[in-house]
Amino acid sequence: MKEINIVLVSPEIPQNTGNISRTCAVTGARLHIVKPIGFEISDRTLKRAGLDYWDKLDVTYYENYEDFLAKNADAELYFFSAHGKNAHTDIDYPDGVFLVFGRESVGLPRELVEVNFDRTVRIPMRKTLRCLNLSNSVAIAVYEVLRQNDFGGLE
């Protein structure tokens, strides 16, 4: 089974992070949360969304994006953005891939997208609408990586 890493940069909504933690737990993906965070990790809504799975989760916290980069210097990063260059199905995701997602309200910082434009990824959607829900986007991305690996290790 390919190793998958989900990176949330400054998540704001505890229910989304709870749902993402559940997706990570059931698929074996690792979760990386980059501060600042818009809620307390002990928030009851976060725990309620992922409560049954929280103890099955492999989660790492970082003080900021620079801390994340320093601790994952060799990571192969793909940045999900509505402004991405590549469709999520156009990428041949490597083992150990890091799928990076931004805040619910504004996505990833524009400068991060611009500097990494060749590694930006979009999930196709109607142009008249802003974006998908963050937890839905993460699930779509994780399952595309799993599909490319014939869902190895899952039943």
Short description:
The chain has 155 residues and is α/β, with parallel strands linked by helices. It is built from 5 helices and 7 strands. A 7-stranded parallel beta sheet has the order 3-2-1-6-4-7-5.
Task: Describe the protein in words.
By secondary structure, this protein is of the alpha/beta class. It has one domain: Alpha/beta knot, CATH 3.40.1280. The chain has five helices and seven strands; from the N terminus they run βαβαβαβββαβα. α1 packs parallel to α5.
List keywords for this structure.
single chain, 155 residues, alpha/beta, Alpha/beta knot, seven-stranded parallel β-sheet, 5 helices, 7 strands
Strand and helix map with partners:
Layout: E1 4-9, H1 14-27, E2 30-34, H2 44-50, E3 59-62, H3 65-71, E4 77-80, E5 86-87, E6 97-101, H4 110-115, E7 120-122, H5 134-148
Parallel strand pairs: 1-2, 1-6, 2-3, 4-6, 4-7, 5-7
Helix pairs in contact: 1-2, 1-5
